[in-house]
Specification:
mainly alpha; Methane Monooxygenase Hydroxylase, Chain G, domain 1; 6 helices; PhoU-like_sf; UPF0111_domain; Put_Phosphate_transp_reg
Length: 206
C-alpha cells in the first residue's frame, strides 16, 4: 500500500459499510417476497421502501462528507462512483418489489428465485468487503466472485427470457414479468459495478 504523509478522513469506511449492510437488508426482503401472499407483499414493499430511503440517506451522507472533506481516503471520483453504485443496487431491488405489488403478479416465473439467491450472495460478499477498504487487503477474491455471480445472473436472466417468450404467458403478462426480471438483472449488474470500482481503488492504492 502506498505510504501517506497526510491524515485521511476515515468516516467514509463506516458509511460504505452501513450502505452495504442496508443492501443485505434489502436482499433479505427480496427473499421474503418469494413465498409471500398478496397482503404480505404489500407489507414487504413498505419495508423495502423504508430500506431504500435509508440507502438514500447513507448516500447523501457520503456525498456531504465528500464535499466537506479536504482529505479523502482515496480519489473523490471513486468515492462518488462507489457510493452511487451501492445506491443503484438498492434502487433496483426496491423497484423490483414495487413492480411485483403494482402489477399484482400472482406467481413469479420459475428461475426468479435463482436471480434473488444470486443477489443475496452478492450482497453478503459486498457487505463483507467494505470494511477491507481500510487496508485494501483480501479483496481480490471478492471482486472475482462477484463477477462470477454476475455471469451466473446473466445466464439465469437469458433462461427466464426464453421461458417468458415460450408461449405460456399472454402478451400483457410477458411485459409485466419481463420488466421485473430485467430490473433484477440490473441489480446484478450494479453489484458488478461496485466490485469493479473496488478493484480500481485497490489498484490505485497498491
Amino acid at each position: 500500500m502506498r505510504f501517506r504523509l497526510t491524515p485521511r478522513e476515515t468516516s467514509f469506511y463506516d458509511m460504505f459499510s452501513a450502505s452495504a449492510d442496508n443492501i443485505v437488508t434489502g436482499s433479505k426482503l427480496l427473499m421474503e417476497l418469494l413465498g409471500a401472499d398478496a397482503a404480505s407483499r404489500v407489507e414487504i414493499a413498505e419495508r423495502m421502501r423504508a430500506a431504500e430511503h435509508a440507502g438514500d440517506d447513507a448516500t447523501h451522507a457520503i456525498f456531504h462528507q465528500l464535499n466537506s472533506s479536504f482529505i479523502t481516503p482515496f480519489d473523490r471520483e471513486d468515492i462518488y462512483k462507489l457510493a452511487s453504485s451501492l445506491d443503484d443496487i438498492m434502487d433496483f431491488m426496491e423497484e423490483a418489489v414495487d413492480l411485483v405489488v403494482l402489477y399484482q403478479v400472482e406467481e413469479l416465473p420459475k428461475g426468479v428465485e435463482q436471480q434473488i439467491e444470486v443477489l443475496a450472495r452478492a450482497a453478503e460478499l459486498t457487505a463483507e468487503a467494505m470494511p477491507s477498504l481500510r487496508t485494501m487487503e483480501n479483496l481480490t477474491e471478492y471482486w472475482i466472485e462477484v463477477n462470477r455471480l454476475e455471469n451466473q445472473a446473466d445466464q439465469i436472466h437469458r433462461k427466464l427470457l426464453a421461458q417468458l417468450f415460450n408461449g405460456k404467458y399472454d402478451a400483457m403478462e410477458v411485459l409485466k414479468l419481463k420488466q421485473i426480471v430485467d430490473v433484477l438483472e440490473e441489480a446484478a449488474d450494479a453489484f458488478e459495478h461496485v466490485a469493479n470500482t473496488v478493484e480500481t481503488i485497490a489498484v490505485k492504492e497498491s
